[in-house]
Records
---
Amino acid sequence: MNNQGAPLDGGVRLRAARQARGYSQQQLAGMAGVSRQAVSAVEAGHSDPSLRVALALASALGVTVEELFGPRMPTPVVGARAVAPLGGAGARVSLAPMGESFVALRADAATRTGFRPAGGLVALPADAAPATPVRPLGPPRPTVVVAGCDPALPLLETPLARLDPPVGFSWWPCGSGEALRLAAAGLVHAAGAHLLGRSGEYNTGPAGEQLARQGAEVIGFASWREGLVLRPALAGQVRGVRDVAEQGLRVVNREEGAEARHVLDRELAAAGLQPAALRGYGTRAGGHLQVAAATAGGLADAGVASEPAALAYGLAFVPLAAERFDLVIPASQAGSREADALRKVLTSPWLLTQLGTLPGYDPARCGEHVASL
């Protein structure tokens, strides 16, 4: 029996909190993403939880780590690998468990109107270190982290939040090549890609090359047409890249590794033109919607983007390729709770309905197993 006035042992508090909510050890373990044996060992006082396990148990029970494990558990600072530079001390970041470690993404990277919630603050700048010290603002919860350029990816957030227990979602917008690099580095649960391989097949070849050491699973998401997006006044006046060059029109380009840039380069080569023939070839836009926005806003006359982006901004469109956008799950993440949640929601009626309402999207293969690499 505890001495009167002495704080309860963390294992006792864990058991009391679990029982007060009517959870079995197995149920709590499933919600926290840990083994039942780990819960049992902590409750029995046979082992102290790691910081990751403590954070996960506290999150599942809706309490803080300090409330659950008391003064012995210091205010946590976790080492998080950065998907991209995070900024200096105090920078707001999204924090997601990734296996036994954490990854962090800038929370101020604007991908929608308004501020995004932060999961932590950078404790100390560590640009040269493999991990950046981050102070969580609350217990990190299971979160699916996806990189890729499809602006429909944020639709995954709603069905993931409806799971029991819910799973969070973080999106890092980038080109297909960069997304596959992040997947190979173990920084995301899935990479979105629409890269044409040497065989003429989309994604399986490039993903197999990038993830050759570990393998991957390729799952369908959506199909669309890629092509030239043009100011509406140019409709009917431009049939291809040669017309863009001959008329001296200004283009907005994508970053290296983006399939839209590859499409533009292939069209230039087919027309026998050099990149220098296009005004604005050296520009960079961060995604399909950004290319369309720059064109609609008069910053450029043309660019290469998806047809859904052109339709969203009321632009003229000249199709150049029919593409398939897939999600590539690296083998290192294939058995994770987050990957399981992602597979589950890809076939949800809610997501399929939402994708089907987007002009230019074909979700017929969403959730379909494309290949094991």
---
Amino acid sequence: MDIKTREFGKLPTGETVEEFSLTNSRGLTLKLITYGATITELHVPDRHGVMADVVLGFNDLAGYLGNHPYFGCTAGRVSGRITGGKFTLDGRNYQLALNDPPNHLHGGARGFDKRVWQAKVINPKDAIGVMLSYRSLDGEEGFPGNVDATVAYYLTEQNEFSICYDAATDRATPFSLTNHSYFNLAGEGNGTIENHLLQISSSEISETDNQMTLLGKRSPVKGKANDFNQPKRLGDAILGLLNSHGDNYLLANANRKASETVARLEDPASGRVMEVLTTQDCLQLYTAAVLNGSLIGKSDRPYPKFGGVCLECQGYPDGANHPELGNIILRPGEFYQQTTVYGFKTQ
């Protein structure tokens, strides 16, 4: 296994953004950059051994500095939507930016996805990896407390890559991270994900309204378009989803080791299969409904509506207001530790 490093670009401030390329002996390659702790490429073999990059993104830093829907980034200090951008914690009221009106989304106007993380190569047994670190200061984007966060990416010979999140704070604060990669197992820029088969092991979602505002309620999925307990072609389900968007699934087997598959995505044409395992409480399905062909990806082809699918493992985003659906408050002396694993094979 091998890790290579190069300069990916410079910010307008002159700050350097590094790229790390991790490759195992079977050819699977994961690339990430220190801007936003972002996954930029993921090359995976099909049933004939032909490699394809299966995540949406850009060839250069300019693309990631422009307007895009969080391709591949680490979203936080809280991933997902905080209803009304408001919460009360230890008797104090907080109002955050409504950067996705009427809600707060993915940490605000300049969340973790728009920060440069510090990186170092790590070499645990039977894997290669990169650990990225960031200190989020008290008051950043309206959140309380200084938070020291790390995101470690590991690649194994079993064609798995894992994301391990760790954090600590000096003051109580909401905290929940996710990776926001858009997957297309046919290869990025190669049409839509409508022929992909998706399975999600969950019997409930957290309800939202038409503006995707979380309502603090559970809703069963049995027999509905958003029921993916059995493999289902995404194209047969999308129009039945709220706003064709996708839901936040509540995982009944959360808070355990990441040893059980909570989601499975398959592209029958290429034979590529991705399995998702996580310790997180929730899995957000997002169908890339916002894409409209205006963004040009790495293969110089436009990304169409439904050109990828996100399977974002996270805490309950509005947990500061509804801890009964998932408590996301991190307090001094506690340690935030979560793991998500994406494994690849062929069918």
